[in-house]
Design a protein that fits this description.
Largest sheet of chain A: 2 strands, antiparallel
Helix content of chain B: 55-70%
Helix content of chain A: over 70%
Number of helices of chain A: 19
Oligomer: heterodimer
Distance between the termini of chain A: 56 Å
Strand content of chain A: under 5%
Distance between the termini of chain B: 62 Å
Shape of chain A: globular
Number of domains of chain A: 1
């Protein structure tokens, strides 16, 4: 608890609060605009933060992340179009509430649920993260290898519709990470005789191209609709009665706790958490008839889960260096770009930074509440800006951002190259997030495998002598096999009926 | 009876089983070629080290194999076209069934995306002599005028906004040393 208080002391300076405010505001705006989700938003902003102090940069990027999660809610309620995947469930009841003139109420419930669950789960994060880190500190190279493999397979698998495609993208990221000089033997790999590739492919240009530029290009043809039926909202509608608050109390608590646990699982992320919590809410509700027709619990639960899962996703990211979602994979990339390696040692070596970052989540939650309740009607107006007027400005910003990392046109070309590849791959349903994970975790995977095999005098049998590694491998295998078995059973059942 | 496409590209696509089939073929071929080449190259780096451990080629070899296998899986005719999501989905590929592009928009989409990327390529090619800011103003104008069919005034506004943003944020605020203007300045 002292560490957290120290974090608050660090973060409660004018500059840090300002940075947090800017991040939360930018995140909310990016989340509202259908077409720029948290992943693309964060990828766009990484180069803009490189001149900042690392703590301020990470505070800003984290604030963008949770700001985006709230921003997505605004377009869900007012336009029936979620700003990102996690806001999809909110459409189910948020938009019907808006249609019957309760848009302000839906937005207020969403803001309050996010705040309460966010606050609750920051306490859980403060407790869980050091515990995870303490356990992980005892891990040797075999355990770390097993853990990284688990992370790659789970995030690679859950990140998109198809597990197979996620793994292929993770493999693509690992392959890109192999470009350049190899750490152990000094072998030059995939440089094709070019001096420019000796130091490898730049992480930030790779992220900008693969995620931000490709997504903007994709949205340029996908996001053609001109908003016509945006529901209007006003401050008067945002008043919530005491019985309404009492009705959502349980939903927020359930959403918060389940969301946090799901968020902690590598690969699950906020989208899975919101779907699961909405389902749980429907199951536990005595009167289920209003779900899907504008039930306030159908807004409170997924919104609480969303914010809680964002906090939960930081547990594996900070303590194990394995991101809990696609966006935290990009945040992990930002950590690496600042020379900070998340993992078990982070709390020991950079404790001040981590605790200040965690404290900033709380400050960010307060800012979001203060920002979102009064400004929701103003934010709603942003929805009127068609995407065709956004991407011609943002796309070149991404390109210049890639250049700005090292003042190098080569980096801009790299971003453009991977944007082209990503556009093609996304058309076939390949999610870009696992590739980010691959490029970040690839070198770690390789070095831990090398060290493990060296420990075993050249034998892979070392993994059989390490019970924790075996348990993680078994867990990995179960995560691969169980869904396949369940899918097979479901298909068999549907055939017999 | 299906309508015969007017454009040559449309007719070629129809003859080859549709744009979807061509796209699938292109992506799977790319994967197979990249996977195969990377696997062979990785093999050359050595799968085992002299001390009996893993060699510098082991991890890239496994990654390349996965890509190769995925390429073959994608090449199967049973592989269906994924639906596009209208949102910038956080998890990078979740289908959102609320709204989405029409088939026509989706079919023309790849061309739009590659035209945009090619325009950015031209921006990069000419930047050393013309400078980033004029090229980006031109990009904003061209994207607005010819891709989005906006009015000349609106397109000029887009170009100016893009150029101004780059100038204010990157040069003014962040102090990035951009080749912003033509070299004569």
């Amino acid at each position: 608890m002292n560490d957290l208080m120290g974090g608050f002391v660090e973060v409660l300076s004018f500059e840090n609060i300002l940075v947090c405010f800017i991040g939360a505001l930018l995140g909310t705006l990016l989340g509202i605009l259908p077409g720029i989700g948290s992943s693309s938003g964060m990828a766009l902003l990484i180069p803009l933060t490189l001149t900042l102090d690392p703590l301020q940069a990470l505070i800003l990027l984290a604030a963008v992340y949770y700001g985006c999660e709230y921003g997505g809610t605004v377009s869900s309620v007012l336009l029936n179009t979620p700003g990102d995947g996690a806001a999809l469930v909110t459409c189910l009841d948020g938009f019907p509430m808006g249609q019957r003139g309760e848009a302000g109420k839906a937005l207020a419930i969403a803001a309050i649920s996010s705040f309460v669950a966010g606050t609750l789960t920051i306490v859980l994060l403060s407790v869980a993260a050091p515990m995870f880190a303490t356990v992980a500190l005892r891990f040797g190279p075999p355990e770390m290898f097993a853990l990284i493999l688990l992370g790659l397979l789970t995030v690679g698998g859950v990140a998109g519709r198809s597990r197979r495609k996620g793994w292929a993208m993770a493999a693509f990221g690992v392959l890109v990470a192999a470009v350049g000089i190899e750490g152990q033997t000094g072998t030059l790999r995939f440089t094709f005789g070019s001096d420019r590739l000796v130091s490898g492919v730049g992480l930030v240009p790779f992220i900008i191209g693969l995620v931000a530029m490709a997504e903007l290009c994709r949205q340029a043809y996908v996001n053609r609709a001109t908003p016509r039926t945006i529901i209007r909202t006003s401050y008067r509608e945002m008043l919530i009665t005491r019985p309404e608050l009492a009705k959502v109390r349980g939903s927020i608590a359930r959403g918060g706790i389940i969301g946090f646990i799901i968020g902690c699982l590598p690969g699950a992320g906020p989208t899975v958490a919101t779907f699961l919590c909405y389902d749980v809410e429907k199951r536990v509700a005595k009167d289920k008839s209003q779900f899907g027709k504008g039930d306030v619990r159908g807004v409170a639960s997924p919104e609480a889960a969303n914010n809680a899962a964002v906090n939960g996703a930081f547990v594996p990211t900070l303590t194990l260096g394995i991101p809990g979602s696609g966006t935290t994979a990009i945040l992990l990339g930002a950590f690496v770009a600042f020379g900070i390696r998340p993992g078990p040692l982070l709390f020991e070596q950079q404790g001040d930074l981590v605790w200040a970052l965690i404290a900033s989540f709380y400050v960010g939650n307060v800012i979001l509440l203060v920002l979102n309740l009064p400004l929701a009607p103003f934010f709603a107006r942003i929805l009127y800006v068609p995407f065709k007027y956004i991407y011609p400005v943002v796309l070149p910003v991404a390109l210049v951002g890639a250049y700005a990392v090292n003042n190098s046109l080569d980096d801009a070309w790299i971003a453009l190259f991977f944007a082209g590849i990503s556009v093609l791959l996304m058309r076939r349903g390949y999610p870009p997030a696992p590739a980010i994970l691959g490029i970040v975790l690839g070198p770690l995977l390789e070095s831990n495998l090398e060290r493990s095999v060296s420990m075993g005098s050249g034998s892979f049998g070392i993994f059989l002598d390490r019970p924790v590694a075996l348990i993680i491998f078994t867990l990995t295998a179960a995560m691969l096999i169980v869904p396949a078995i369940l899918r097979g059973r479901t298909m068999q059942r549907s055939k017999t009926h | 009876m299906s309508e015969t496409p007017r454009h040559a590209w449309g007719r070629v696509a129809q003859a080859a089983g549709g744009r979807n089939a061509i796209e699938r073929l292109v992506v799977s071929t790319l994967m197979i070629v990249v996977g195969f080449a990377a696997a062979i190259t990785s093999f050359g780096y050595g799968l085992t080290s002299e001390r009996g451990g893993i060699g510098p080629g082991t991890v890239p070899f496994v990654a390349a194999l996965l890509i190769l296998v995925e390429g073959f899986m994608l090449a199967r005719p049973s592989e269906s076209a994924p639906s596009s999501s209208p949102v910038g989905d956080e998890e990078g590929g979740l289908a959102v069934p609320l709204a989405g592009p029409s088939t026509k928009q989706r079919d023309g989409g790849l061309m739009t995306a590659f035209v945009l990327l090619s325009m950015l390529g031209v921006v990069l090619l000419l930047t050393p002599s013309v400078g980033f800011v004029p090229m980006i103003v031109l990009f904003g104008f061209a994207a607005g005028r010819w891709i989005e069919r906006a009015s000349v005034f609106a397109s000029l506004g887009l170009g100016a906004a893009a150029g101004l943003f780059i100038w204010v944020v990157f040069i003014g605020l962040l102090g990035v040393r951009l080749p912003a203007l033509p070299q004569i300045f």
